Amino acid sequence: MFCVIGAYTLSNNVVEVIIMIGFGIAGYLMRKVDLDPAPLVLAFVLGNILETNFRQALLVGKGTLRAVLHAPDRGCAGRLLCRADRAAGRARGDGDGTDGKSASV
């Protein structure tokens, strides 16, 4: 009840109360399905920044994805992600972290 009062008194707008109730229901459903809220929070925080930078990359590449896909550090980042995944697999006890599939790094 305090949340409803706080949402309404902030700007005297019922729409904000409805938004608060909607996010409350979404959070409840996420908890029931055992979804982690961290990726959703990251998407809200980093989504706008990612979209802006992606748009800039498309402008630099004159509308093609060549500037995004052929970046010089792409290979290095890919190797680091693969190594981190394998290390996480070893920490979980999955052996080499490849789930029985061979990976070339």
**Strand proportion:** under 5%
Major sheet details = none
The averaged pLDDT comes out at 75
Reading the helices and strands in chain order gives: HHHHH
Q: Roughly what percent helix? A: over 70%
Number of helices: 5
Overall body shape: flat
Radius of gyration in whole Å, from Cα? 22 Å
What is the total tally of β strands?
0
Q: Can you tell me the number of structural domains?
A: 2
Low-confidence stretches: none
Structural class: mainly alpha
Amino-to-carboxy terminus distance = 55 Å
What does this structure look like?
The chain has helices at residues 2-11, 14-32, 38-60, 66-69, 74-92. The longest helix has 23 residues, at 38-60. The model has no long low-confidence stretch (mean pLDDT 75). It is mainly alpha-helical.
Give a brief description.
Helices cover 71% and strands 0% of the residues. The chain is mainly alpha-helical and 105 residues long.
Record the SSE blueprint.
Elements: H1 2-11, H2 14-32, H3 38-60, H4 66-69, H5 74-92
Question: Which keywords apply here?
Answer:
105 residues, 2 domains, mainly alpha
